[in-house]
Task: structure prediction
Amino acid sequence: MEHTIDHSAEKFEAKNEVMKVTIILSVLTIVELALGFLMYKMFPEPGFARNFIKGTIIILMLSKAYYIVAYFMHLGHEIKNLIMTIVVPLILFVWFIIAFLYDGHSFNVNRNTYDRYKNEKGQPHQMNPNAVEEKAEKPKSVE
Amino acid sequence: MSTTTVATDQKWWSGGRSPFNVEYGKLMMWYFLMSDAFTFGAFLISYGTIRFSSNGWPDANHVFQSFPFLGSGLPLLFVSLMTFILIVSSVTMVLAVKAGHERRKADVVKYLFWTIIGGIAFLSCQAWEWTHLHHEGAWWGSNPFPNADGSLSTTTNFSNFFFTITGFHGFHVFSGVIINIIMLIMTLTGVFEKRGHYLMIEKAGLYWHFVDLVWVFVFTCFYLV
Result:
């Protein structure tokens, strides 16, 4: 953070930095895809493993966002005043995400508890994996 | 504390210069992108809220599993291609901005050209995917995909959010391509050369990277998680 005001260094580093960030972004994307594939192959049922992988993917997503904003959009090399004027308002997202997802979850719980007859027929009906396969094939036969 | 020390040493706020050390247009591009980030954030968070409030939701690996000429049963493959196209076009845009900084006109033209090609390739992929899903019966107000647990979906939320959010992102890519084409024409006609700087390319570049940035989030929220 302290050396963001230094503008002379940015010229030599620029070319290497582009290469480095490109490689980092590609590697992170490949890891994300590998995790997505792992989740599809190894953990088809909801559970801790799946949520853990999803959490990891979200952390990787945020680090990709950091590399794009800091290096490709060059925000990391701007002065602190500019960084702060952009980043500080974005802190609202912390509240935004927590509040709304919590609200969505509590809406689900409330409907399932007090308003069952109106609710979409979600979970309990067909839990056997064969049914999943059968239903999943359906769109293809329509085509 | 260190913030105030730096600010007083540099006298950023005592007038006579931009306290943000960038030109007006670039600062305003940053503010526009911040507001656009809130727009996309609102879309994605409403998607998350509805998904959290639903008992069932389609499995992305069953919905997005086709690749042109290779058939179906290939989850994640096509979207990986789209993601890499966008990352590569972002890299060529960085190189175009850098070439502009050093006033190498020929390189600016070359890299902008490749960026435009990347943008068009991404839009073509998206057009193919939308057409394919539309043939399967998905559209606004129509969702043929069963929930991940095998039960039939009783709402059309999944399709509505998918088409709205990827459509809004696709519209951004489209306008980004148009802006890049304008930049290419302006470079070729020597407007920036006459002006003595290529700062306009930097602003177009910021917009283009933002489009890539949004895709990082859309890709994760719809295809992976």
